[in-house]
Design a protein that fits this description.
alpha+beta; Thiol Ester Dehydrase, Chain A; 30% helix; 6-stranded antiparallel beta sheet; 176 residues
């Protein structure tokens, strides 16, 4: 796909990005991790607020693999004139940890335990849309690992990383 096709997809998803939400624990409990993510991609469940804030969203979800897309904006610049590395870290954390999520059964959740990211070239607002693909390396019952890559429509690699996620039963309630 070309950058123009990626931007067309972004325009189609934008109305959902402008109305983000957080799913109830009951919605997560009754779906496998894969079903939960596929329902977000399909628009059955809301896109998470982080996607609106950082201008990225999930595109595909299958067992052991998730694809996100994002477009860097000037709002994400650091003082030295490129997209802040935290944007790439958030995008990689999302694609890698969600790849892990696709392997967990209903009633379970995850959290990032460790994140390692390597930036290999600068991302700017002129880069255009990028995609981040996360793939599971080891789908454990309590610990799982995944790798991810951020690349442009031209095939250039911008960053890559790995994660370790902790897997646990979804609690019956949250909060005090």
């Amino acid at each position: 796909m070309s950058a123009e096709e990626w931007l067309k997809l972004e325009r189609e998803v934008m109305p959902r990005m402008n109305n983000p939400g957080v799913s109830l624990l009951e919605e997560m409990r009754k779906r496998s991790g894969l079903q939960f993510l596929q329902d977000i991609v399909a628009g059955v469940l809301p896109l998470p607020p982080i996607g609106k804030a950082l201008n990225f969203f999930p595109v595909e979800a299958e067992e052991g693999r998730v694809l996100f897309q994002g477009t860097p904006k000037f709002d994400f610049y650091n003082p030295i004139g490129s997209i802040h590395g935290g944007w790439a870290c958030a995008l990689l954390d999302s694609c890698m940890s969600c790849a892990v999520q696709t392997t967990i059964p209903a009633g379970f959740a995850y959290t990032t335990g460790e994140l390692k990211v390597n930036m290999v070239r600068p991302i700017t607002e002129k880069t255009g849309p990028v995609r981040a693909e996360g793939k599971v390396i080891h789908p454990g019952r309590q610990l799982a690992t995944a790798e991810g890559r951020i690349f442009g429509a031209d095939g250039k690699l911008y960053a890559h990383g790995t994660t370790t996620c902790l897997i646990f039963p979804i609690p019956q309630s949250v909060g005090p």
